[in-house]
Design a protein that fits this description.
The chain has 152 residues and is mainly β. Helices cover 4% and strands 55% of the residues. Strands 1, 2, 3, 4, 5, 6, 7, 8, 9, 10 and 11 form an eleven-stranded antiparallel sheet that branches. The two termini are 14 Å apart.
Length: 152
């Protein structure tokens, strides 16, 4: 076995806006969700989520939800960090509930694999990281929250 450790990089909460249900397509149920903003707290990155963000969600017929999130963090010192990630699971009946627009009560556990891209000199170290995030969706308050860790 290889030794590794997890280093807590940041935590963040994203506020969710409008939902756009495209409907059932061959791959599953397509639902797009606007991200309207959010807060990023340390220990290594601090700032906010910019509102030009979203999640292009696919809920497969087996209930597994595949996230396709793209967002930008604006750091407290003016840096811009582009973030993409995928991951999650709504449960075996997630597809059927999605078709019927039945809300799933939270918290809904989510696991993500974020990747970072930036040109800001103080945050170039993020470009090299392999990270994982653990969190949850809270549909009743239209937000998601994550803790993000670098695998070292």
């Amino acid at each position: 076995m290889f030794e590794y450790r997890l280093e807590h990089i940041m935590s963040y909460t994203a506020k969710l806006g409008e939902r756009e249900t495209i409907g059932p397509i061959p791959e599953g149920l397509r639902v797009n969700v606007q991200v309207t903003g959010g807060e990023v707290t340390g220990p290594r990155v601090f700032g906010k989520l910019r509102p030009l963000s979203g999640d292009w969600l696919m809920i497969r017929r087996d209930g597994v939800a595949i996230l396709d999130v793209r967002t930008t963090i604006e750091t407290h010192d003016g840096g811009l960090i582009y973030v993409t990630y995928s991951g999650t699971d709504r449960g075996e009946d997630g597809y059927e509930k999605g078709l019927q627009a039945i809300p799933i009560p939270g918290p809904i556990p989510i696991q993500i694999s974020p990747r970072f891209q930036t040109s800001h000199p103080d945050y170039l170290w993020l470009n090299r990281l392999h990270c994982l995030g653990v969190g949850a969706a809270f549909p009743e308050r239209a937000e998601v929250a994550y803790d993000v860790y670098a695998v070292r």
